Amino acid sequence: MGNGRSLHIVGAGIIGVACALRLQLHGYRVTLIDPNDPGMGCSYGNAGIIQIGACVPVATPGVLRDILHMLLNSDQPLAIRWPYVLHLLPYLARFLAAARSSQVERITQILANTLNHAIDGFAPLLKAADAEHLFTKTGELYVYETDRSFEAAKSAHELRRRQGVNIEYLDARGLRVLEPALGPIFKHAAYLTDCVAVSDPLDLTKALLNAFFAAGGVHLREKVVGFEQVDGKVHQIVTNAHVHPSDAILLATGAWSKPLAKIAMISRFHSLQDERMRLKIKQKSTRWPTSSQKRMDFVTTLEREFEDLPQTFWWTALNY
Questions:
Q1: What pLDDT, on the 0 to 100 scale, is given for residue 110?
Q2: Of 41, 1, 4, 34, which is closest to residue 216 (Cα–Cα)?
Q3: Backbone phi, psi, residue 254, to 5°
Q4: How far apart are CA 298 and CA 51, in angstroms?
Q5: In this model, does residue 117 exceed pLDDT 50?
Q6: β-strand 29-33 against 218-220: which pairing, if any?
Q7: Burial class (CB in 10 A: 0-12, 13-18, 19+), 83
């Protein structure tokens, strides 16, 4: 338990806010630091899905072939700045090494063990924020237009099954019964039954934030510019406005974490800069979150309309 220790979280997206409330429930005095409105970055523009079955890593056998195909096709979600390739080589070498079958099995198991706690982990936060109504168990559909694409995807789905993910395979008729809104071009589907959809990601962030404030939490609209350390440990956070003593810090700034980690002299931190993927987002078209790998379409069930965003747009990816 925190026993009243002070902890500062840099970044007020859904990850920062959720960590703030959880740590507060464990007895910490938590302060959020972010110059922007909470939840208005990637936490606002996302598909709103708790993907219990997202345990298969991107790096899998055959990924090099897929990468080459995507680089040569402008409709695919991968683009590399060629002057940046030399900088990427060490990461790409580790990425390809992780694509070996033995490594994929190991990584899938680790991810599955983490994701299995996702819903239970949210439960006390939703209760504290009176926000259980924002979560709905919908499941998730992966749809395929050809027998070949469906068979190619089965190895990944069987990986999920071995980790306890519940999956139902549907033919064209079964898919129409489950989701009549989809067109007749889809011949197969994999239905991951345990996925949970968030009706509005921004409302979720705001609900958790309000619970955090109600329990005495603080949000400072300041920009972190440095850290002061004693014996290798951060004991003060320097912002553009003040210097804040702190017993511990947590970085929750996604793609912007690398420069802060460098300032704080955090070792073994790797960030992919400007890694982006293009998705065609369609809203409220289906009852279930649905993705088509071939078309790079993702159909959401969000209640909020992103009227200020174009139909096709760029997302900055989170870093691991």
A1: 94
A2: 4
A3: 55, -125
A4: 13
A5: yes
A6: parallel
A7: exposed
